[in-house]
Design goal:
- The chain is of the alpha/beta class.
- The chain folds into three domains: 185 residues, Spore Coat Polysaccharide Biosynthesis Protein SpsA, Chain A (Alpha-Beta Complex); 90 residues, no CATH class; 41 residues.
- The chain is built from twelve helices and 16 strands.
- It starts with a strand and ends with a helix.
Length: 329
């Protein structure tokens, strides 16, 4: 069995559903996790997670000492652009693994090994491209391809990404996923996961044609995670990504071996049936409008914060690159 480690630096208060994230990794005992955090809240950590308590300034200093040019890393969110370099930043932690990688904590895992079999890990050098969960083969070829220096107006090379203050999404299609296409690194990118549409209050999977525009809810049962829509249509997924959603937690026992996830809260386990689906997928137009209004009110705050963190600068920078490139032709 291929050995895997996922590395997660996280600074600030861990999410309110972090105990459920931990429960979902407990049911993946053959995958190791490394959490670097300054949150010293007492949690029931499973055996397959190692926790290192550290301040952001310590990681910041370590990163600046690694590179031979002036890198920018002023806020924890900027760490996303450094994710493809975790093999260097945390080199002592990954040396005995076949694959190393990173993942988000605004998600819940299902059965990872059911999807990422040894056959897939044998055939591919990089697993997934969107940044929520990404694995790299621990090889010289893959680790070298990350240091791509050609200029392309459509994505960043590593020096461009690491010398700006704002987030460039270098850990996904803003950089490394496009670079690996250029470098012929074999990438696995099946839609095994539930990446939820942030433009809708309801749970609706992106990229999944068979479930396009279908609302559903999740059932997590002893490590198995299923997205269920009306008429009992089910899809088992490797993880559900709750990006940018403020989730409520109504689970009374974090040690419970099953729970249900509806928009936008975690519930004590309730078997998913048509009655539950009707209640939580907004069949009433009035309920739908009210819920979406509340949801978008929160989303607008997030968009403003994103703009403050450099989203507008990033788009202007890319536009400038495209103009320069066009004039050079």
């Amino acid at each position: 069995m291929k050995k895997i480690i996922l590395i997660i630096p996280y600074f600030g208060k861990l999410p309110n559903y972090f105990p459920l994230w931990l429960k979902s990794i407990e049911y993946n005992p053959t995958i190791n996790f490394l959490l670097i955090t300054d949150d010293k809240t007492k949690y029931s950590y499973p055996k397959n997670i190692k926790v290192i308590y550290s301040q952001f300034e310590e990681i910041q200093k370590k990163i600046k000492n690694i590179f031979d040019f002036n890198v920018k890393i002023n806020k924890p969110y900027k760490l996303c652009d450094y994710r493809p370099f975790y093999n260097i930043i945390f080199d002592s932690e990954i040396k005995n693994y076949d694959f190393w990688g990173y993942c988000d904590i605004d998600l819940i895992f299902g059965n990872i090994r059911k999807f990422l079999t040894d056959e897939i890990l044998e055939e591919y050098e990089k697993i997934y491209t969107r940044g929520h969960l990404t694995l790299f083969k621990n090889s010289l070829k893959v680790n070298s391809a990350i240091r791509y220096t050609k200029i392309n107006p459509n994505f960043y090379n590593y020096k461009e990404a690491l010398t700006t203050d704002y987030a460039c999404h270098f850990d996904e299609w803003g950089g490394i996923s496009r670079i690996f296409l250029e470098e012929n690194v074999k990438q696995y990118d099946n839609i095994d996961f539930a990446d939820l549409d942030v433009k809708d209050y309801n749970f609706k999977m992106l990229f999944e044609e068979k479930l396009k525009n279908k609302y559903g809810i999740f059932e997590w049962n002893k490590g198995k995670l299923e997205f269920i829509t009306k008429n009992n249509v089910k899809k088992e997924v490797i993880y559900a990504h709750f990006q940018k959603r403020k989730m409520q937690v109504e689970v009374s026992n974090f040690e419970a071996e099953k729970f249900t996830v509806v928009p936008n809260k975690f519930l004590n386990y309730t078997k998913v049936d048509e009655k539950l689906l009707n209640k939580y997928t907004n069949s009433s137009i009035n309920v739908y409008i009210i819920n979406n209004f509340k949801y978008y009110k929160k989303r607008i705050k997030g968009i403003i914060e994103k703009a403050k963190n450099g989203a507008i600068k990033q788009r202007l920078y890319r536009f400038k690159k495209k103009i320069i490139r066009r004039n050079q032709k």
